[in-house]
Amino acid sequence: MGELSYADVQAAVARIAGRVREVGVVRADDIAADGGCAELFFALEFLQHTGTFKARGAQNFLLAHREAGTLPEVGVTIASGGNAGLACAWAAKEQGVPATVFLPANAPQVKVRRLRGYGADVRLVGTEYAEALAACSEFAAATGALTSHAYDHPHIAAGAGTLMIELHARIPDLDTVVVAVGGGGLFAGVAAAARQVGVRTVAVEPENCRALNAALAAGRPVDVPLDSVAADSLGARRVSEMALAAAQHHQASSVLVSDAAIVRARQLLWDDYRLAVEHAAGTALAGVLGPTGYRPRDGEKICVVLCGANTNPADLAG
Ligand SMILES: Cc1ncc(COP(=O)(O)O)c(C=O)c1O
């Protein structure tokens, strides 16, 4: 798959209409910009079903397969204990098909419980993600279950991109949208829609989880080491081709932020707004606050996507 198109995202909008929550948008405090200040908005996507935008892609993926007559009765399978797994289990329940989710046996009990809460058949295999992934592939081959992916599929990325179409309707003169990047599904979808309506997309990654930034430097997706406070959701070893293609457009920027800046931004969201969000959401905000981030110009209208709620808020209080 080369590039995701605006038409792919529009098709996803039509498919998932009424099946996901529309994103809420609020005006936040202005931030420093070259020569003055920029208007900051938050997209409250952590209020989405299952706590993240992943619900959009998961719905789009299953609905597209149902439309095409390729959604088997045995259902869908994925290897993910994270937000993609949750979204897949939720969407399968909504569609009335089984979800079989593979996780390493040492996955936290809380994740297993939540997945089972959405009705998933959770299979615990091995001690590493790679073993769970191999078991997932074997299961799909043996049963004919549909294999889903956390980010590297056009239906998953296009589903995520529907967020941008809603944002544009809410803020028609938006200049810039800011997203955190793991494997790049969210970024690829949002950037495809943003380009079409003249909005710049800023891709923010932790400096030690820089799959997109490294792919841009190398001119192709490459494996990167993963070591960040946000690695639980942004820890993809390799970015998708779709994300790299989107990042190569001049309307996109890639920036890196430190773990300290991510922690500060997440804490600021709690201290100033009483929002408890994931480090991934802190990463996106750090991308416009930190010294290494994107530098807006005076009067620029910027929307930061607060992408995830699945966090333990214990370290925020105080
Ligand atoms: C809360 C949150 N934000 C951002 C991302 C990154 O998304 P992508 O892998 O599509 O880049 C993820 C991925 O799991 C996530 O869970």
Please provide a brief summary of the model.
The chain is α/β, with parallel strands linked by helices and 318 residues long.
Give a structural overview.
- This protein folds into two domains: about 210 residues, Rossmann fold (3-Layer(aba) Sandwich), CATH 3.40.50.1100; about 70 residues, 3-Layer(aba) Sandwich (Rossmann fold).
- The protein is of the alpha/beta class.
- Strands 1, 2, 3, 8, 9, 10 and 11 form a seven-stranded mixed sheet that branches.
- The longest helix is centred in the middle third of the chain and has 17 residues.
- Helix 2 crosses helix 6, helix 6 crosses helix 7 and helix 11 packs across helix 12.
- Helix 7 links the parallel strand 8 and strand 9.
- The protein contains twelve helices and eleven strands.
- The chain is about 45% helix and about 15% strand.
- It is globular and about 60 Å long.
- The site of pyridoxal-5'-phosphate has 22 residues, from helix 3, helix 7 and helix 9.
